[in-house]
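Title: Prediction job returns without error message
Component: structure pipeline
Severity: low
Priority: P3
Assignee: unassigned

Description:
Job completed but the reporter wants confirmation the result is attached to the right record. Sequence as submitted:
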Amino acid sequence: MKESRMCIKYRVGKIVYEDDNYQNQHYSIEEISSSSGVKLVITPKEKLELISLKLIYNHKYETRDRFFVNGYQSWTTSYEASADDFQKGLPWIVKLTPTGKRLASTSGDYSFIKYSRKPGVFHSFTYTYIINEGKTTLYGSLNERTGFTVFYADMNKSSFIIEKDVEGVSILKPYELINVIKIEGGYDEVFDKYFAAQEVKKPRIDHLSGYTSWYNYFQNISQDIILRDLEGLYKVKDYANIFQIDDGYAPFVGDWLDSNPVKFPEGMKKICEKIHDKGFLAGIWLAPFNVQKKSRIAKERPEWLLKDRSGKPIIGCIAWGGAYVLDIFSEPVRDHIRNFFNVISNEWGFDMFKLDFLYSQCMNPRNGKSRGQIMCEAVDFLRECLGDKLILGCGVPLGPAFGKVDACRIGCDMDLQYLPKYYNKLNVNKEIPSVQNSMTSTIFRRHLNGRAFLNDPDVFFLRDTNLKFTLEQKKLLAKVNNMFGNVLFVSDNIGEYSLDALQILKDALKKSQAMIISVESSDDKYFTIKYLEGGEQKKICFDLNTGNQ
C-alpha cells in the first residue's frame, strides 16, 4: 500500500485549504506504509479544523472480483457487489421535499457520503474485502476513534480510495488520520487475523435464544400479554434461555422509569422476577439516547437536547412521531442515563439490554470531534453504565461496537410480509424494514459472528396470524437465521403453536453446527450456500425474493 496520492482539506481560521503535500506551513504528515497496511499521523503547526482526508490508489479489478459493501450502521444492507452492480442512494422521489429527504436520510449516511449511482462504484464502512474464487483481500481500520474509515471502489475505473470522515475535528496536537491493515488469505483466515490485530476478545456468551415482544404487538404490549407469552416460551424451556420485553412498557420513549399502571399494574420489577422464576434471562429494550417529542423529559429538560445551528432540537429518529437526542457531553444527561440504567439493572433486575437507535448520538460532529469519535465514546459510556450486564446493540455503526457489545443486530428490521412492499421496491433507503435486505446482511456479515460479537439476525416467525408468510418462507428464514446467527428470537405466542411448529421451533433455536464453505449469489436474489453439517456436505439454494427453495 505504498503507491498512493494523498489529498487533505482543512480550515485555518476562516480560510479553507486543500493540499496534496505531506508538509506545508500548517502541518506535517508522517506516512508509514508497507504491503500489509498504511498509517498516517498529522502534526499541526497551529490549530486546524479538518474537513476531509483521503488516500487514492490505482487498483486493477479482475473480472470475477466482488467488493464487500459494509453499510453505515447495523440496519444498513451489506452485500458483495460486482462491477455491474449499483450502490444507490436516496431515490429522486424522496428528495422532492426537504422533509422527505430528511426523514429518509435520518438513519443513514446520505447526508455526508456522496452516492455516484454509477455501476461498479461502492463504499464500505470500517472494513471491506475483495474476494475472487475464495481468495480474499481484506482492508480494515484499526482505529475508528479518530473518525469513520470509508473505503471506496470504482471497479470500472481501477480506483480504490481510503477516506477518513474527519468533518468537525479540531486539532492542536498529533492526530492519527488513518490506520489500515491489509490481510490476504482465505475468507475465515483474514477475519481471524483482523480481529486479532484489534485485540478484540471473543464474546463472553456463545448463544442466546428465546422471545422478544416487538414483532407481534409492537408498542401494544401489556402485563397480560407478556405473562401469557412467557408461559408459551416455557414450553420450549430446554431450547431457550432469554425472554426480552421490547418497546411499549414505558408511557413514552425516554420516560423509562415512569410507571404505566394500566398496562403494567405490578411494575417492571415484578415482571422481571417472573421471567427469572421461569429460568430465563430477562431482557429489556431501550433507546437510551432518545426522548419522544411527547415525553416528559423532552418537555421538562429541553436544555438536555442536541440542537442544530438554528437552535432547534435535532430529530434523531422518525419513530413514535419523532424523537429528539440527548447530548451525552452534558454531565446532567450522563447522570440521568446512569440513573435509569442503575434502576433497571440493579433494582428491577434485568440481565440483558437491547440498546437501539444508537447512531443518533453521532449524527452531527461537534465539540471538535468526528462522528466516529463520538460514537466510540458513546458506546464506551454505555458499557461503563451497565458494567458486566449483557448488551445487544442495535442501530449502531459496527466498528465502535466491536468487542464492546455482547451481541449486535447486523441487518434491518424484519417485516411481517415476506414479499417486498412498495417502499422496498422504491429503495427509499437501505435501513427500512425488509425481509430481503435483512437476510442479505445476515448472510454477508456472517464473519462478525463470534468474532466481534454474537450476530443478531432479527426474528423469525412460525405463527399463522398477523403475518404474510408461506410455510416455506417461514422455514427458510428460520434456517438462514440459525445458520448465520447466534441470537435467535421469535415474537410469537408459542402457546398457540401446533406440534409441527413446536418441532420446527426447537430445531431453529438450537445452536447451529453448520460450517459454511461458500456463499454464491447472482442477480441479487439467487443464493447457493454450501456447508458442512454432521460430517456431511450439504447445499441450500433459494430465490431470496420469493422464498422458494
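Comment from assignee: result matches the submitted record. Residues 5-197 form one domain.
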